[in-house]
Specification:
alpha+beta, Alpha-Beta Plaits, two-stranded antiparallel ribbon, 9 helices, about 30% helix, about 20% strand
């Protein structure tokens, strides 16, 4: 093979060698520079900061609630994932120093479409910029895209808005709306709707929440602005059986107590089944008549969604630049993302629906030796079965079966709020005494 250097003179070859040595040296220097740049700590001081609100959507089924439990490996939460993304994107250095607030904290398994947080983040505006004005949203960092690239599939930032320095996602929220989805089954919708009217207004909800004496809650009064039951659109449940159509409870209030919505739904299901009259709601809201919560469980967390949180005067930005054409805006990418997840879940749902349809045609023998299909057997079966067993929906497909139903007002009751707080203070005093005694023994 003929070399292109075969006819080169000695001087030409030496010049070429020197040229190549320079290239190698430059490449080595460039690699060293890139390595040093990569390892160099990020300088947040080069940038200004600003306070923003973020609207966050999440599917909470696989998380231990929204609020961090400070054990992300063992008890992962939505907040843990958000904090991790904010720090990884270099938008925040330290969450504790970022004036972070959240609109609400949802329970384990509960989802959110309208959760809002407030936080101080890095701005694109340099610290060296002498102008006092904040950047317009169209000139700022693409907060939505930046965070969504770092978040898991079941958490997405939907929008952001500039806010004042004193903004609090908790205290500036004017209303919160929850939705709870349920299949009708054998429930009487008229009775359900009548019971909902008793919840509306300002009431003491101590019999519809989980009390924590360590929090020292001073008032259990909350305002329910509206509570409605609507059919869920676009669900296809034909052939699954009687009562397979879905409805949603839309519950709007100014604020809520711990587990309040799930306890309200649990009692509604008893009313819907005809096991309690709608007026049981009115009785339990009367704390002079019922001073402590009777023993009844919470409804399932699966169908509950924090649907919306309302604020005055926030101008939400939904894409990097809402004011110019973008062939692939952030909002469209978010839609495609949720569409993919929706199709996956719909395929699973249709698969189960086929199984139900087939099993629904299986034969069941009746006491008179006649035969029925499983679907007809379910249709003819009452809330109270032939043996006296009561079937009680718990939401999310769960049911409880009781051999003998006891009305709510006949059930054992929890301690009153006052008694719970007294017992807590006694336990706290004993704990302090044990610690003091242990300290004295160690000192000796």
């Amino acid at each position: 093979m003929t070399s292109r250097y075969q006819e080169s003179t000695r001087e030409q070859l030496l010049a070429r060698i020197q040229e190549l040595e320079k290239q190698v040296a430059l490449e080595k220097k460039s690699k060293t520079h890139r390595k040093e740049y990569k390892n160099r700590p990020f300088d947040m001081a080069k940038y200004t900061k600003r306070k923003i609100a973020l609207r966050v959507a999440y599917i909470g089924w696989e998380y231990s609630g929204y609020a961090s439990q400070h054990e992300p490996d063992r008890l992962p939460t939505i907040e843990d994932m958000l904090f991790k993304a904010l720090i990884s994107c270099k938008l925040v250095e330290n969450i504790d120093e970022s004036d972070y607030t959240r609109c609400g904290r949802t329970d384990k398994g509960v989802s959110g479409l309208g959760q809002v947080i407030g936080i101080i983040v890095r701005s694109r505006k340099l610290a060296s910029d002498p102008s006092p004005e904040l950047l317009e949203p169209s000139e700022e960092f693409p907060y939505i895209d930046t965070l969504n690239r770092m978040l898991p599939d079941d958490i997405r930032v939907l929008s952001w808005a500039p806010v004042e320095e004193d903004f609090s996602a908790r205290f500036h929220c004017t209303a919160r709306t929850y939705k709870y989805f349920f299949n009708r089954g054998k429930m009487d919708l008229d009775n359900l709707r009548k019971a909902c009217t008793y919840f509306e207004g300002r009431h003491d909800f101590r019999n519809f929440c989980k009390m924590d004496p360590s929090k020292n809650v001073l008032s259990y009064e909350r305002v329910i602005l509206s509570m409605k039951i609507n059919p869920v659109q676009y669900t296809l449940s034909d052939g699954v059986g009687e009562g397979s159509d879905f409805y949603e409870v839309v519950l709007k209030g100014t604020a809520f107590l711990w587990h309040q919505v799930r306890f309200m739904m649990s009692l509604l299901f008893l009313v819907g089944q005809g096991l309690e009259e709608p007026e049981i709601v009115r009785d339990l809201l009367d704390v002079e008549k019922v001073s402590a919560k009777p023993d009844f469980p919470m409804a399932s967390d699966l169908p509950l969604v924090l649907y919306d949180c309302e604020f005055q005067g926030l101008n939400w930005t939904y894409s990097f630049r809402d004011n110019v054409y973008d062939p692939l805006p952030s909002s469209y990418r978010t839609y495609l993302h949720f569409n993919e997840l929706w199709v996956q879940q719909m395929v699973r749902s249709i698969t189960y629906q086929n199984y139900l349809t087939m099993v629904g045609e299986f034969p069941v023998k009746m006491p008179d030796d006649s035969m029925k299909t499983v679907l007809d057997f379910v249709k003819d079966r009452g809330v109270i079965g032939p043996t006296g067993m009561a079937t009680i929906p718990r939401g999310g497909g769960k049911e409880s079966r009781l051999g003998k139903y006891k009305t709510v007002l006949e059930r054992p009751r929890c301690d009153t709020d006052e008694l719970k707080k007294e017992k807590f203070e006694v336990r706290k005093k004993r704990k302090v005494e044990r610690q003091e005694k242990a300290a004295l023994l160690n000192a000796e």
